[in-house]
Design goal:
Layout lengths: L4 E5 L5 E4 L5 E6 L4 H10 L1 H17 L9 E4 L2 E8 L5 E2 L4 E4 L4 H27 L5 E5 L6 E3 L4 E5 L7 H16 L5 H10 L3 H10 L8
Parallel strand pairs: 1-3, 5-7, 8-10
Antiparallel strand pairs: 2-3, 4-5, 6-7, 9-10
The structure holds zinc ion.
Length: 217
């Protein structure tokens, strides 16, 4: 049974909440017995574990106490951000070096442009492999989905894809390319995705587990 903090009030129902530190808070009616609360918590233990895991990813994803420029996610890894006397930002194996005067907005714009560059390089390769040709693509501010495909077969990708590992970016691009043929999530659609990305289920799971990346920056 997970540890929890119990908060009683005049409410009529039980509710669970995971706070920013990953701690479980249970809100309960004043008179409900502790045993009933325990049974409820026990019955939701799988849900709680999943939420706490997500919160952990979120916590490690959000820039540490040092502020927005302490570390950034890029291609599935976190890089400490170092301010140096450089003209252009540059990744080393260990860190991202940025010019000393850069603001959060500059860094964000750089990462968004990186996403555009990476998609521009990779999308034609995947298009050639699948024989599915988009009319173009845009990198967007979307925070509810990683990609989409318009009725005119123009593809949209959330710029925060730049945080994800290369194989995850590939999966999202393949997914949207497959929507050129199937404008739905039918069995035929998923069969087509599987043909080009046999590990797509694992890639979808990775995105679910890292949903918090959507809220960074
Ligand atoms: Zn889709």
């Amino acid at each position: 049974m997970p540890d929890y903090t119990l908060i009683r009030s005049d409410r009529k129902t039980l509710a669970l909440e995971i706070d920013r530190t990953g701690a479980l808070i249970v809100r309960a009616p004043r008179r409900l017995s502790r045993a009933a609360v325990d049974r409820f918590v026990e019955s939701r233990s799988a849900w709680i574990a999943e939420k706490q895991r997500l919160q952990q990813v979120r916590a490690s994803a959000v820039t540490p106490a040092g502020g927005w420029d302490a570390a950034v996610w890029y291609r599935g890894r976190q890089y400490p951000v170092l301010r140096r006397q450089v003209r252009q930002p540059a990744f080393t194996d260990e860190a991202l070096m940025i010019p000393e005067g850069w603001t959060a907005q500059r860094l964000r714009a750089f990462l968004k442009e990186e996403c555009r560059r990476l998609v521009a390089v990779r999308l034609p390769v995947l298009s050639a492999r699948t024989g599915l040709c988009p009319t173009g693509f845009h990198v967007t501010e979307a925070q509810t989905r990683w990609g989409s495909c318009s009725g005119k077969n123009s593809l949209n990708f959330a710029w925060r894809l730049v945080f994800c590992p290369p194989e995850i970016m590939d999966y999202v691009m393949l997914h949207e390319l497959c929507h050129i043929r199937h404008k739905n999530h039918s069995a035929a659609f998923w069969a087509l995705v599987a043909q080009f990305d046999p590990d797509y289920a694992a890639h979808r799971a990775w995105l679910r587990e890292h949903a918090a990346l959507m809220e960074l920056f």
